[in-house]
Specification:
With 569 residues, this protein is an alpha/beta fold. 27% of the residues lie in helices and 17% in strands. The protein has 16 helices and 24 strands. The strands form 7 sheets. It has an 8-stranded parallel beta sheet. A 5-stranded antiparallel beta sheet has the order 18-19-20-24-22. Helix 7 links the parallel strand 11 and strand 12. Helix 11 runs parallel beside helix 15. The longest helix has 17 residues. The radius of gyration is 24 Å and the shape is globular. The two termini are 22 Å apart. The chain binds 1-O-alpha-D-glucopyranosyl-D-fructose. 1-O-alpha-D-glucopyranosyl-D-fructose binds next to loops. It comes from [Candida] subhashii. Keywords: Glycosidase, Hydrolase, Maltose metabolism. This is Alpha-glucosidase. It catalyses: Hydrolysis of terminal, non-reducing (1->4)-linked alpha-D-glucose residues with release of alpha-D-glucose.
């Protein structure tokens, strides 16, 4: 018997503030902008807003580099604006969760500024400092071969004290030393308690598996012979004290009725359950990366390979069956600010099939077990950036470092190689999710009255909220319907048991969702061809919803058509 909770039934909408809604014409989204769109989100059926980092920051990694947990990035607004947003969410019966980024801070955080001053500074040990390694010729090297997630070494040399500090992400994002009790207490008070007291309803916990590093700091095994610095996840993911740390975080939150969702990264079912099994009392749920990482190497996002519908089904199955037989809870998502647009990856972003495949993905997502997350713009079918954009149109530090590294490793790259590189970047860069939100067809898509910080996707006159709001057949209108249906049949869609039928079918994705007293049957055509519809169960079917406003034939599914039925017993 599943324990029902508000945070299990919630539909969560992720806002990446830089690109969401600019209220003052400076070209950057802001908090008052977010507040102004709450009626829109409420109409969509959203219960919880997840705000990606809005803390004070030099914005090297768009807010995931925090310089002050207790303040707001001035370009986004003020603490008062946050209080208003929290209040406005609550007065509408909605909740709001923040991003908790506590694996690292910005190098501009006061803690780090102190830490770097001297080896005997009181805060020296709040970050991870190590002496250089010298070769037989006396050349200086980083302490080990660990690579950063944003290319290059994970260590940055600091002349001031002749030591290196660890940064698993950008150079300007030093990793905090969780081994130090004072550091942990400071994080708890400044990053967590401060915001709980201001009324937030929980957190999405960034890089939640990485706080506890293996203290040996050994060299990582060589995985990619073509680069100098290697993936080092085995030494920082699910480290020896990680569960002790999460139990302490959960203890701190216990007096508050909040939700927590961890971003633990790629991990096995066994490892994942240690974080989210209810009896462990750590976090409520976590994101599983099987679907979003499909076709790429989790150790290096730009190493890609082909995949087909069967691989996709397998990834959905892994996520769909994750909680079976356990007391854990799970999430459903196919987009966030770190991954390309889902229609471009798993659907079809050609003008002919964009809407149809967007509806197919919306139907799939709304039928799956777990707490549902939608990323800004997903609901209107925003897609990847056009293929002819140049590297100057990309702004993400991860993309730019990767591009730079490629040029360093291939100084004589020819036009063909550069073309290949840009193809990869176009398909997989995080920038795809980060173009300004498309509100209407006025200049800059109604995102800003000024000059947008990042180029708006060229397709905004067609794809925007205003166009879709007044069209009952739009993807946006379909999302609204599916979110309602999900709530109406929550026993089946949110809590039910997931079972794929006819797994080997290369075009159709057919599955049952079994609730306590009723079962639904979903079939979705994930191909560009018309496909024969064959009922795979004995029971009669009662029609509930289709992606198509006019079903052409009961026996045939048009390209990307999906239908949900109820089994009649
Ligand atoms: O992302 C973390 C992240 O990218 C890895 O944990 C990821 O799981 C791994 O590379 C793939 O297996 C978070 C934020 O979502 C991202 O935007 C930030 O840039 C990053 O942390 C640093 O804070």
């Amino acid at each position: 018997m599943i324990d029902e909770k508000w945070w299990k039934e919630a539909t969560v909408y992720q806002i990446w503030p830089t690109s969401y809604k600019d209220s003052n014409g400076d070209g950057v989204g802001d908090i008052p902008g977010v507040t102004s769109t709450l009626p829109y989100l409420q109409e969509l059926g959203i219960d919880v807003v997840w705000l990606s980092p809005m803390y004070d920051s030099p914005m090297n990694d768009f807010g995931y580099d925090i310089s002050d947990y207790e303040n707001v990035y001035p370009g986004f607004g003020t603490l008062q604006d946050m209080d208003t947003l929290i209040q406005e969410c609550h007065s509408r019966g909605m909740k709001i969760i923040l991003d908790l980024v506590i694996n690292h801070t910005s190098d501009q955080h006061a803690w780090f500024k102190e830490s770097r001053l001297s080896k005997d500074n009181a805060k020296r040990d709040w970050y991870i400092w190590k002496p250089p390694r010298y070769d037989s010729e006396g050349n200086r090297h980083p302490p080990n071969n660990w690579g950063s997630y944003f290319s290059g070494s994970a260590w940055k040399y600091d002349e001031l004290t002749n030591e290196y500090y660890l940064h698993l992400f950008a150079e300007s994002q030093p990793d905090l030393n969780w081994e130090n009790e004072d550091t942990r207490q400071a994080i708890f008070q400044s990053a967590i308690k401060f915001w709980l007291d201001r009324g937030v309803d929980g957190f999405r916990i960034d890089t939640a598996g990485m706080y506890s590093k293996h203290q040996g700091f050994k060299d990582a095994p060589i995985k990619f012979a073509d680069i100098e610095f290697q993936p080092c996840k085995i030494y920082h993911q699910h480290g020896p004290r990680i569960h002790e740390f999460h139990k302490a975080i959960a203890d701190l939150m216990k007096p508050f009725d909040v939700m927590t969702v961890g971003e633990v990264g790629h991990s096995t079912r066994e490892e994942s359950l240690k974080y989210v099994s209810a009896k462990e009392c750590e976090m409520n749920m976590m994101f599983l990366f099987d679907v979003v990482e499909l076709g790429t190497d989790p150790a290096d996002r730009f190493r890609m390979h082909e995949f087909n519908l069967l691989n996709f089904k397998k990834a959905v199955k892994t996520q769909g069956e994750f909680i079976e037989g356990t007391d854990a809870w799970s999430t459903v998502f196919i987009e966030n600010h770190d991954f390309p647009r889902s229609i471009s990856r798993f659907g079809n972003d050609s003008p002919e099939f964009r809407i149809a495949s967007g509806k197919a993905l919306a139907m799939l997502q709304c039928c799956l077990t777990g707490t549902e997350f939608i990323f800004q713009g997903q609901e209107i079918g925003m897609v990847n950036v056009p293929k002819d954009w140049t590297i100057d149109d990309y702004k993400d530090i991860g993309t730019l470092n990767y591009y730079k590294q490629f040029l360093e490793l291939n100084p004589n790259a020819d036009a063909k190689q550069l073309n290949e590189l840009m193809k990869k970047i176009n398909l997989l860069a995080r920038d795809n999710a980060r173009t300004p939100m498309q509100w209407d067809s006025t200049p800059n898509a109604g995102f800003t009255s000024g000059t947008p910080w990042m180029r708006v996707n060229d397709n905004y006159q067609k794809i925007n909220v205003k166009n879709e709001s007044c069209n009952p057949d739009s993807l946006l209108s379909f999302w609204k319907k599916m979110i309602q249906l999900r709530k109406q049949y929550k026993d089946v869609f949110i809590y039910g048991h997931f079972k794929i039928l006819d797994f080997e079918n290369p075009k159709l994705f057919t599955f049952l969702k079994e609730g306590k007293d009723r079962t639904t049957y979903t079939v979705i055509n994930f191909s560009t061809e018309e496909v024969e519809f064959e009922k795979l169960v004995n029971e009669d079917l009662e029609f509930l919803q289709s992606t198509s406003s006019s079903i052409k034939s009961n026996d045939k599914l048009s390209p990307y058509e999906g239908r949900v039925y109820l089994l009649k017993h």
